[in-house]
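ugh ok fine here u go
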Amino acid sequence: MNKILEFLNDPPKSKVLVIGDIMLDKYYFGDVERISPEAPVPVVHIRKIESRIGGAGNTALNLKNLGIEVDILGIVGNDENGNELLNLLKEKNFHLNYIIKIDNITTTKIRVISRNQHLLRIDFEEVKALNREIENKVINIIEEIVKNYDLVIVSDYNKGLITEKISQIVINMSKFTIIDPKGRNWNKYKGANIITPNVKELSEGLNISLENEDKILEEAGKIAVKKFNFGSILITRSEKGLSYIDNKTILHVPTKQSEVYDVSGAGDTVVAALAFGIICNLNVREILEFANLCASIVIKHLGTYAIRKEDLYFYNS
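structure:
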């Protein structure tokens, strides 16, 4: 941890680009005091509303909070939620040069919460294939800027931005690529330096059912690395921690024991911690232990929460 603190106090002068599906997360906090007379459902008296940066934006925010210079390439809808998301990004000092507005609705997740209980989630989204004009615009930006970054994170939430063509251009042109995958088409991720699925995502990528057991995931990880020519794979395993596999190494790092309030966004934090560790030239075990620590901190918070330096200083105090 002392080595990590040194890097947190004096972060490397590296630049990271996050490409992916940015979202708006909205939280309605309130109290339930009665059941509706209209239907057998709780009536929530809203006390507070919060908006937060979600999806690929949360990955970028985690990394920015650790002191790394980060830019985001993504799309938002030309709507009220899109404007709100852009304002949140501005508040966090992201520049918006590579955020493209399109005629679509901004992916928005609304969660209703009462006394730390998650009652309901409402999603606003319109998932459809990226049209050729927007895809070419994204590709032009990538081809112009990607060489300026030491590492690129592709944060794919399967909302339409990360097409196979875009993904392959990123992988072929970037110095180092981390893929946070979604969906069954893993051909679009071929050749990535490292991919970070959870067990469900790994099952979908290989089109097989997998149990969350060491030996099973070791074999599946080896298959994925070979089949898709990955440099390595980092499997996130919820309460069982993290597993790392490449052509020479298999490493399991158990999770830090932690009270769990909300796991939403924890995967984004792991990816950001992984990128931070790679930039700092930490060894694999150090990176995994750091990622586990960061995840154990964010899941103690209700809702999407980006790790901060202060959290890690407090943990070490």
